[in-house]
Specification:
Helix content: 40-55%
Strand order of the largest sheet: 10-22-21-20-11-18-19
Number of helices: 25
Number of strands: 22
Radius of gyration: 32 Å
Distance between the termini: 46 Å
């Protein structure tokens, strides 16, 4: 069994740290002979506590799968050192190797709560309509063709079609769209989405395992199972290391007939510094990332990120703030000022439950700073808008269907609204006393640093791609403003997953950045997943390898550069450790090193590797690109 399995629990970590602490003290006692009255060498504590688990793991790997890892050579060196009485050398090698194993295990410990939280989103109950009235039943008992009722604030239990009623549905869980979608008879609704206001009756069309939320759960599970895991470089080279070390030791014994030299070769060729080369650099880089608000949740995430050549951005909540804001107010009546139209519309929307209505009220307070009048005779018109008396005037605020129902001509607003609609905005038309008075355009708002982030990503040699569930117009407008040339709009979770899968099959490594539940499958499938930790859902964070704790996307270019700097450090560490090993072998073959001195040389090499890795803790590229 891998050590990672017992390190997933904090108790296992504490036990391993305790064993290392005891072993370190024992080695100090051994080398300085602090307890001469002991009947045995104190280094045996390190051999038993650190060495025995390594030997057992190597034996299990060889017997069960003929898996040759770095532990195999370490085990041979340990046993050989013990047989010739070099207890300190055996204990010191075991200690260094176990320390490297602990550092590596700590960096790859994984959280797997995301799928469980996604399962909790599945609606538990449904309101089924029968001739005898309404009954609440478990959602799993809903059958195709059943008629269900969904009340305001409730989650849609299964996929279906609206029969009666008007409402607005928050579809962020499935599509990531920032703005709610108005629905009426004949429109389809998906399980897991939320009914904002207004009750409606629906006919179930897909239930149980066929429902949208259950399909997303399966997507997350399959994407996680298919993601390749990186194998440690030391273990990848272990077969060659074992062959070279054994051959060198055997040839030395054949020509010199001195077993001490052969054992010394095995000791100095133990890949201690090589094993430490990767985990120490990764831990230092993780510490650097943490200082910049980047939580690295997967140990090898930075190693994978260094080879990424494409970054797929979700739009809503990632490049934008994910909340609707008033982008424009246009008056079409002579003598009616923009602020007056804004104030009257906000007064009509003051009691509205619709997210767009609340955005109008909040925007008016922020933009004008004035008091919003209290509406009288307020009427909510689900799927259409609102009607109210504000300061003695009848105000209608809603869509074109509302204007048509109230016999208000909307022709004058068509050209004015066309530009805003082309930019992906939602438009609220406003009529005063039966006459079209103007319109309000609402849109999602770009993050201030989004353009700089995209420029920094491109400067790092990575191609940005916009991958969003929003409509084509909104996606194209945002992409144009940011300079993103490749856009995929109207994507459902499975569409994002397919695009990432096709890209990676063609040899491109993709990093996915998203914030919503609908992004979880893509975050799992991508070579590296980055989630917005502040505004993003817990499920998205659990599905990702890296989380932006404060949603500060301006640190993404630094993250890319840091990952590549980390890989450079790892390569330098490995080059140094291998050079040290070969130099030590030559000295051992000529009899200039004994096992104890060889172990100390290894110790010094390991310290130098750790110090070199520590330089990553405060590394940041200087110059304009780093700002």
């Amino acid at each position: 069994m891998e050590r990672i399995e017992r390190l997933l629990e904090w108790g296992g970590v504490k036990r391993e740290i305790a064993c290392l602490a005891i072993s370190g003290i024992a080695l100090l006692i051994s080398i300085f002979d602090l307890l001469p009255w002991l009947p045995f060498d104190a280094a045996w504590a390190a051999i038993i506590l650190c060495g025995v688990p390594i030997v057992l793991e190597a034996v299990i790997g060889l017997v069960t799968a003929f898996d040759i890892k770095a532990d195999v050579l370490v085990s041979i060196a340990l046993i050989a050192s013990v047989l010739i009485g070099e207890d300190f050398a055996a204990g010191e090698v075991a200690f260094i190797m176990q320390l490297g194993g602990l550092l590596e295990d700590l960096t790859v410990a994984k959280a797997r709560a995301g799928i469980e939280k996604l399962v909790h989103l599945t609606p538990r109950t449904a309101r089924r309509l029968r001739s005898g009235g309404e009954e609440v039943i478990p959602a799993g008992e809903v059958g195709v063709g059943d008629v269900l009722r969904v009340l305001p604030g409730e989650t849609v239990p299964v996929d279906g079609v609206i029969l009666t009623g008007q409402t607005s549905i928050n579809q962020a869980v499935m599509t990531g769209e920032s703005l709610p979608v108005d629905k009426g008879p004949g429109d389809q609704v998906s399980s897991g989405t939320v009914n904002q206001f207004g009750s409606f009756d629906m006919e179930a069309t897909r239930v149980g395992e066929d429902s949208s939320i259950q399909r997303m759960i399966r997507l997350v599970q399959s994407a996680d199972a298919g993601k390749a895991k990186i194998v440690g470089l030391a273990d990848r080279w272990a077969t060659w290391i074992v062959v070279i070390a054994l051959a060198a030791a055997a040839l030395t014994f054949v020509f010199t007939h001195e077993i001490i030299r052969s054992v010394t070769i095995l000791v100095v060729f133990c890949p201690c510094a090589l094993v430490l080369a990767t985990p120490t650099a990764i831990m230092a880089a993780i510490g650097n990332a943490t200082r910049h608000g980047l939580l690295v949740r997967e140990g090898d995430a930075l190693e994978r990120l260094a080879s990424v050549d494409r970054i797929a951005f979700d739009k809503t909540g990632t490049l934008t703030y994910g909340t609707p804001r008033v982008a424009a107010v246009e008056s079409l009546l002579p003598g009616l000022g923009r602020e007056d139209l804004y104030r009257l519309a906000a007064g009509a929307e003051r009691r509205s439950e619709h997210p767009l209505g609340r955005a109008v009220v909040a925007g008016c307070r922020a933009d004008t700073g004035g008091e919003i009048p209290e509406p009288a005779d307020f009427e909510m018109l689900p799927g259409r808008g609102v009607r109210a008396l504000v300061e003695g005037r009848e105000v209608l605020a809603g869509n074109l269907e509302l204007m048509a129902e109230k016999q208000v001509s909307g022709r004058e607003a068509a050209s004015a609204a066309e530009l805003h609609l082309a930019e992906g905005c939602s438009v609220i038309y406003v009529a005063l006393d039966g006459v079209l008075a103007g319109l309000l355009a609402l849109s999602d708002t770009l993050r201030e640093d989004a353009a700089a982030v995209i420029a920094g990503v491109e400067e790092a040699g990575v191609t940005p791609v916009l991958l969003t569930g929003d409509h084509e117009n909104a996606a194209r407008h945002i992409a144009g403003a940011l300079g993103i040339r490749e856009v995929r709009a109207g994507c459902l979770p499975e569409d994002k997953l397919d695009w990432i899968d096709q890209s990676q099959r063609s040899g491109r490594q993709v990093c996915m950045i998203g914030d919503g539940i609908n992004d979880a499958p893509a975050l799992k499938k991508a070579y590296v997943g980055v989630a917005m930790g502040g505004v993003g859902s817990d499920i998205a964070v659990d599905a990702a390898d890296i989380a932006l704790v404060s949603d500060d996307i301006q640190e993404l270019p630094h993250l890319l550069r840091l990952s590549r700097r980390m890989m450079l450090t790892i390569k330098c560490n490995m080059t140094f450790s291998m050079a040290l090993n070969f130099a030590a072998i030559l000295l051992a073959m000529t009899g200039r090193l004994n096992p104890v001195v060889g172990a100390l040389v290894h110790n010094a090499g390991s310290v130098l590797v750790i110090l070199n890795s520590a330089l990553l803790l405060k590394w940041r590229k200087k110059g304009p690109a780093a700002k």
